[in-house]
Amino acid sequence: MSLNEDHHFHFHEATFINQNGELKTTKIPIVQELSRTNHFPKRFIASGHYHADTLAQTPPVIDIAKLRSPHGSRTPELQRLAAAAKEWGLFLIKNHGVVMDDVKDVVKGFFGLSYEEKKKCVGSYESVDNMGYGKNFVKSEDQPLDWIDRLTMKAAPVYVDESTNDLSVWPNKPPNFRVAIEKYVEESRKVLDGLLQDLAASLSLDQNAFVQQFEPEQSEIKVRVNYYPPCPRPDLAIGIMPHSDASGLTLLLEFGATGALQVHNPTSGWVTLSWPEDNSLLVNVGDLLEIMSNGVLKSMWHQVRTKVDVERFSLACFYNPPPRSVIEPVVGGGGGSMEEIMYKKVVVEEYVSNYYKISPTTSKEAIMYARVK
């Protein structure tokens, strides 16, 4: 029996603009249901992305308490922060003060709901803004599909944008879902704003050089909660295809399983991140901060593996300047090559729009849009 003939399966829809500029829609089977029945459709075969024999490495760990210390521990911690952001494009943080228990519970609770209940958060399948439940980054009818189920919401600014009906995709169940997510975002924003100042200081720039471009009162935070169910063919499927983030900073919480996130090192190839089972959070540099830092800080090229016998959850906060703001490289610090302008000024929403139009065949192809020719 083909998948389309089996009435037990439900489908998401994905809307995309093809190479001819036409709006197209395609159906995507829900991986939670595929996992329960051990189905593996051919559309999930992602050739060339399986890297089982990668090295496992623990990312640099930055102690937020030391960064906030009035004593001598701040300077060496700033040096470690700069090295991590330049060489890895990411780092773990500890002693950050962000409470996680409630948000973990509501994320698990949401994906434990029935399909009928989760479907209330779809929003509109005709929208190409990726807000809502079940939105997938599909750019063609023949691209391999990610083995993932997800919900994306705009968490800040806090006002309701009537034109996009932002709140319509927020779940009503679990009943404390929104309260838990908003509290987590509030605490995360404080950490991210502080890190933007720390990153600037670590490069011998004015500490507000980056954060002022985010315009914190109007800056945007999108939250994406992800569920990766067990996959019957982890040797063929990919949780998320290789990509960099079209954000300033991304804050990632993962739980349920580790050893799925892989990053690409230009010299050693793919590396599997070894994530301590504690309250650490992962921070990674996005394309927009790479542009602001004139290429000194590097956004990371990364992907997510699937696993055959475990499920994994994650929550990502994507922190961006306001969509219509203009960002530009900051020069004049102690970053060595920072004096040569590597990137041009870009409007945030124009960069992000271009990012989602590209189906990258090479690492970080999207950011070439902002490079000085």
Name the features.
373 residues, alpha+beta, Jelly Rolls, eight-stranded mixed sheet, five-stranded mixed sheet, 9 helices, 23% helix, globular, disordered N terminus, IPNS-like_FE2OG_OXY, oxidoreductase activity, acting on paired donors, with incorporation or reduction of molecular oxygen, DIOX_N, iron, metal ion binding
Q: What is the architecture at the second tier of CATH?
A: Sandwich
The CATH first-level class comes to: Mainly Beta
Oligomer category = single chain
CATH homologous superfamily grouping: B-lactam Antibiotic, Isopenicillin N Synthase, Chain
* Percentage of β-strand residues: 15-25%
The chain-level structural class is alpha+beta
The ordered string of helix (H) and strand (E) elements is EEHEEHHEHHEEHHEEEEEEHEEEEH
Brief rundown of the structure:
With 373 residues, the protein is α+β, with helices and mostly antiparallel strands. Helix content is 23%, strand content 23%. The chain has an eight-stranded mixed sheet. Strands 3-12-11-14-9 form a five-stranded mixed sheet, with no helix packed on it.
Report on this structure.
This protein is an alpha+beta fold and 373 residues long. It has a single domain (10-370), classed as B-lactam Antibiotic, Isopenicillin N Synthase, Chain (Jelly Rolls, Sandwich), CATH 2.60.120.330. Helix content is 23%, strand content 23%. It contains nine helices and 17 strands. It has helices at residues 31-37, 64-67, 74-87, 101-111, 115-119, 177-202, 211-214, 287-292, 348-357; strands spanning 11-17, 23-29, 55-57, 61-63, 90-94, 132-133, 149-156, 220-228, 240-243, 249-255, 261-265, 269-273, 281-285, 302-304, 312-320, 326-327, 346-347. The strands form four sheets. It has an eight-stranded mixed β-sheet with strand order 4-5-13-10-15-8-7-6. A hairpin with a 3-residue loop joins strand 11 (261-265) and strand 12. Helix 3 (74-87) packs across helix 6 (177-202) and helix 4 packs across helix 6 (177-202). The longest helix has 26 residues, at 177-202. The termini are far apart.
